Amino acid sequence: MKYSTTTGTLTELKTDCLVAAKDQCERVAAELGSEALFSAAVLDFEDKPGVTLQINLGTKSAVRKLLVVGGLKGTVTTSDYDKSIKAAAGALKTAKARSAVWALVSARVKDQDNYWKASRGITALNDTLYSFDAYRTAETKPLSLKSVALHADSRSRSPVARAVRHGQAAKAGLDWARDLGNQPPNVCNPSYLLREARKLGRAPNVTVSALDEKKMEELGMGAFLAVTRGSETPGKMIIIRYRGTRRAGEAPIVLVGKGITFDTGGISIKPAANMHEMKWDMCGAATVMGATKAAIEARLPIDLITIVAAAENMPSGRATRPGDIVKTSSGKTVEILNTDAEGRLVLCDALTYAARYKPRTVIDVATLTGAVIVALGAHASAVYANDDDLAQALLDAGEYSGDRGWRMPLWDDYQAALKSQFADVANIGTGGAGSVLAACFLSRFVEGLSWAHLDIAGTAFPRGPQNGATGRPVNMLFRYLINQSG
Ligand code: BES
Ligand code: MN
Ligand code: ZN
């Protein structure tokens, strides 16, 4: 699927499908001599958000099909606009068109400019047009839609072109993140993530490397190694380095992702029901990799380092036991009271490693706790930060891109719950607030850094039968990176 920009008069277009508001469609139909057909077709049309109507003008018509999008009269709110464009994207997916012109940027949306309106349209299309069919041997219908041109006038041309450039990059990152997430756990293991990450190394200014378990041993990463001990597939710490700026000595942004390619819980084993969902426990890794790919494809002028803590959490005769005490690469000791609280263990060594890059910012992303699903459900990723400006920048990026976050507390009051009887800190706490306590655990390993943590267990994949990776929060992260590079 390719996006492009098209200018010129709407009534002179040639396309399989024109996606436009009712009054725009009316003008085009009139120009093409299809007035009667149009007015008959829209007799019962309810012009409101979420409603669409397809009108076939015939194979000889310059515009073969009109996709009339409801709810775009006058000035509309952001949420009504979202509703309209999501319906439009959904209808376009099944419209059997190879090409389309998307003319919805000209709608008036309260407080939003052309760049935002175009970006939002592409986001809706990116969301809707994705599917994962790699393992279906029965016939699957590939998407018929090959290209969407966003219509712009002379004034909106340059912001729309910029949105197309960013939107195409976002799609590449988002699709990749979702594919990685949806791969089954017998395929997507730590070595697979490394092989996939290495593909980024083909781009200019990108290098990909990895620490193997031996190297991690040397670095004293006892917490990471405690998680991977029970598995037959060795853990990897993957490092992607993108140098997008020539400015010497600029401090990089570091992204860190939880890449547990399967989380059985280890010796603190999980119940069987829905355990298969733990193949998505590497979505933090997938989304930081996706955001990185988007940044590289958009050639953002930033220095970015992405660290993926990839491991499998399995029970075995060699696996870590509840009660084991390990030493982390920071020097702090951890009493592992529950081997199912493994994400924070791989992350604490990754965060310690991040500090060596003297970053201006570190952001980790993880499907860290079931508790965050109780707190926020599927609508917002939890945002924790020891830096208010960073938290706000992430919340703003989420709001702007429609991939929301919500700030959670990191007050000192919570820290006492992680007290261990025998070590510096325990890997689980008492007294509820499971997502906050997990964040508090991580906060102990980022002293002196500007740091944020996103708990995405609620947003990375939906519960229930239609579950597939959402790619969240690639859009939030990519928007944050765009803003940081501007
Ligand atoms: N990967 C899970 C968290 C999770 C649960 C993600 C459901 C997505 C959906 C994590 O490793 C985990 O098991 N967390 C435990 C922590 C507990 C042992 C303190 C949890 O949330 O139950
Ligand atoms: Mn777990
Ligand atoms: Zn986990």
Fold and architecture overview:
The chain has an 8-stranded mixed beta sheet with strand order 9-10-12-11-15-19-16-17, sandwiched between helices. A 6-stranded mixed beta sheet has the order 1-8-6-2-4-3, with helices on both faces. The protein has a 3-stranded mixed beta sheet with strand order 13-14-18, covered by helices on one side. The longest helix has 26 residues, at 157-182. With 486 residues, it is an alpha/beta fold. The chain has 2 domains: 2-151, Leucine Aminopeptidase, subunit E, domain 1, CATH 3.40.220.10; 175-485, 3-Layer(aba) Sandwich (Aminopeptidase). It has helices spanning 22-31, 35-41, 78-93, 114-129, 157-182, 190-199, 213-218, 222-228, 283-297, 343-354, 371-376, 388-401, 434-443, 474-485, and strands at residues 2-6, 15-21, 52-56, 63-69, 75-76, 99-102, 108-109, 147-151, 206-211, 236-243, 253-263, 303-313, 325-327, 333-335, 361-366, 381-385, 405-407, 425-426, 451-455. The protein contains 14 helices and 19 strands. Bound molecules: ligand BES, manganese (II) ion and zinc ion (ZN).
Summed up, what is this model?
By secondary structure, the protein is of the alpha/beta class.
